[in-house]
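User: I'm writing a tutorial on reading structure tokens. Could you give me a worked example: one chain, its sequence, then its tokens, then a sentence or two explaining what the tokens reveal?
Assistant: Sure. Here is the example chain.
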Amino acid sequence: MPADGKVVPWHRCLLVALPGWVVARVVVLSTFALANQPSALVWDAAWYHDLGVHGYGPYGAEGSRFFPLLPAIVAVGAGLGAPAGVWQLAVCWVAALFFAAALVRLTVRESGDEAAGHRVAWLIQLVPGANVLALGYTEALAGLLAVLYFLALRSPRGVPTGVAAGVLSGLARPTGPLLVVPGLVEAVRSARGEGEGRAARWGAWLVALAPLVGTGGYLAWAWWALGDPLTPYRVHSAADLRGGVARAPWEFLLRTSPGGYPWPLVLTLLAAAAVALYLCGRRLPLAYVAWAGPMVGLAVTAWGLHSLPRYLAAIFPLWMAVAVVVRDRRLWLTLMTASVAGFIWVAWLTVAPGGPVP
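And here are its predicted structure tokens:
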């Protein structure tokens, strides 16, 4: 593990993240008001709410595709007497703010550039698809945990945080186990490093394997409750959802898929992700691209590319790399103008009648 780089205090990171957080919520809530949509707890957010309030029992195998961290948090709030919907949204909003703040801290530590930290705070919250950070979805929690995991990976003193963030990440989303990949990259690097003590090397391996512990626990429950440990993944891969483990996206590059986003938007996002992934490989340590690459692969191989904006928006190393590289003020303003326009477009499409579901 590398020596600690430049560290920005958490309170400053939060202040840097706050303006973009406010702007994103103003935009998203405005689209809901214009569409006469009364609640941000819609689509998948409604599933997380209902699973937290009623448990998994009434929903059988179909509900198992929603991993249990957010439902468990909703259940805790309901058990304490808080209105479940308000509690869920409050937790997700706070997590989104800390997600952006943690990414500011990580970006500055890796790059030594505080201006890059300011840029990433805006970008991560206002790329097309990041509107789900203002909804009751699990992306805010999963994003925060993933950034905390990377903060721990890239620090010689991060084992307790890394283990906790890894286990919880494995319980947050089906993609949680992919954090094992960067974990193993850093564990191997630690094992080869000179001057690393035995405790540090063992700690690196514990952090690397932590996401498997979280997901393994959930799959063990699925085995006990549903008779098949892979039920959550099998349901998620159904024909009316992901459409299989992986589907080639070629047929929808130049035409809009049924119930999907407009193909020009999809094609633009794919091109942006390809450039960002290239920059990630060139400018960030190997652990970042080792995670971002498979995540992009999963995002672009879901049938119809229906959730492409939110999938790509959550892959923070892409936007971290862009924030590090784009230093020219005019280029940055052009990029942010395009990003905000795309953010507004996606936010509107997801609430407009007949629009795609995020």
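What the tokens reveal: Residues 126 and 340 are 6 Å apart (CA to CA). DSSP finds 16 helices and no strands in the chain.
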